[in-house]
Structure formats: C-alpha cells, structure tokens
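Minutes, project check-in
Item: structure for the 331-residue chain
Input as provided by the requester:
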Amino acid sequence: MDSFILALFSDTDKLRPSTLYQILIGKRTSSVLSYAFFYDRLGLFQAMPQLNEREYQQTIADLIQQGMLSRDSDGLLLKRTVANYEQSREMLLHQMDYFRYGRTTEEAWRFVRLLVQAAAYQGVTNQYIPVENTPLYTEPVRRLIHQYPEIKKITHRELSAVFDQLPAEVADFLAGTLSGPDLLGQAFFQLLPESVQGKPWDNLYVGAAIHQFLALVEKEPQMVLFQGLSPFLNRNLNQSMLESRALFLQGASVEQIMEKRRIKRGTVNDHLIEWALLDPTFPYQRFDTALLNKLPATSWKNSYQELQELLATDFLTIRLLQIAQKRGIRC
C-alpha cells in the first residue's frame, strides 16, 4: 500500500490528502472531479470505493514519519520514493480511467471473453462450456451472432486491430484470458506480472489494461465490438448529466435547463462541468472564451475569489475556461 499512496502524490505540486481520498472512493462532486482533472488524477476516480479512510490516513502518517512525504498547510509533497515507484506511477496516471469505465470494467471484459469464445467456436461445434451463462452477457452475444453471420472473421479482424495498438505486454495479458477450441483462457491472477501481484496493484493493473482496450474500441464506433460494448460503456455515464447535455445541445441555456428539468443551478453546473471533463469536444464557444487570454497560467492554483475579481464572470464560466486551459484549448 505504501507504494500506491506515494504514487498519488507529486514532487512538484502539493496535493490535499483528503481530496485524494475523495477521488479514490468516487465522491461525485464537480469540485472533486475538477481537482482530479487539474492534477492529473481523474483516471483514479472511484478506483477504490471501499478504501478505509482510517487506514489511508494512518499510511500517510507513517510515510510522513519516514520522511517520504512532507506536509504543510497547502498539502503534501513527495520527498522520497520506493522501489518500482516510477513504473507504478506511469501506469497509475496514464493508463487507468476509472472515471470513464470504472462502473463496468469487469462486466465489459466478461462480455468480450464470451463474444470471442462464441465466435471462435462458430462452425466448429456448439458443444462447449461457455465462460459466462447469465443473460447480461449471453443475450447481447446471441444478438450479435444472429445479426452478423461472419462474426468469427469480424471479431478476429477487430480484435487484431485493437491489440496491435496496445503495448505488447497489455495485449498479451488480455489475450491470455480468451478461450477458443484449442485454447483455455486463464484468470487474470494467473497472468499478473510479478511486480503487481500485491494489493492494490493487482486490481489496478487489470483495470488499467481493460481501460486501454475500451478506450481504443470507443474510438471506432463502426466496430461490431463497439456495438456490443455500448450498453456497458453507457452505464458508466451519469444519466442525469446526459439529459442536461441533450438540452444544452438543443440550444437551451442554463436557466432553461433548470426550468425544464426542475433542478437547481448548481446541479446544472455540475452536469456541464462533468460533461466537459469527459468530452474534449465540449462546446466551449457557448461561453466567453475570450476570457481565456486573461486566465493566469495554471489558473486552478488561484483562488476562486482572485479569478472572479480578474474575470468578472460567473463560477460555471470560470470552471469551464479552466478545463479548456488545462486541455490546451485557445480561443
């Protein structure tokens, strides 16, 4: 656990341990989500929903005592690292995306495993033991096979295209769980590299591998794989946010969304901010993007009061402009 806690922190930015805890357990507020995004921890959102706060705080206290973390009123700063820290940190920050895929990570891969198995046995035999037997997985697989008689060729082609884009280690890890007439897939715990066999790295490594796969599939909506995975991907999204997004895309203002949906301004603000964090194509042009030129560098390190005085605009506009700034968007 020590190496994981250390990987949460930075040697350049002082970070608040209480907010990092809220990120890990998945406290879905716009302030927590924005903080995670600005400090490159959004992929960890809801990565450890069962994390015990007392144990978390005790680990931090021990690391401070050991001189690996330093504390002041602004937060914690990384001072020293442990073995394999750099490799762990790279995986932690750049490969996981629990914010986008965390709710259905396991379910999505269980669907893929059954689809691949059913496709592999097509034209060979229908007498085999399926890796899944619940309708959540069998029904969408059955529909795809009925809709696409060439599912065997399609699945092989699409899987090859996705695996070719993954790091070889990740592709081999995921492929090792797949089954067919001449191959019995293994469980993830049997395939884990030795360096990640301890808690919590084992679960996080599996999540990171699946998330990379799903991100590539999501970029190709014409794929049959995407069609089959869509119900699992969509269940990760805040459905209330999607309703507000639909109205905004139809041209509704914040006030009109409030009236039509009978929700508070703060709720609409949360929905638009969450949408912007998810979607790099968010329509920032609906707001005063000329104010981007007035934002100080790394504006999220400034207080809201300072930014409000500088820009003389509302909270939602400031937050959306900060997200655009972090993404490197210019007016």
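Outcome recorded: The mean pLDDT is 92.
No further action items on this chain.
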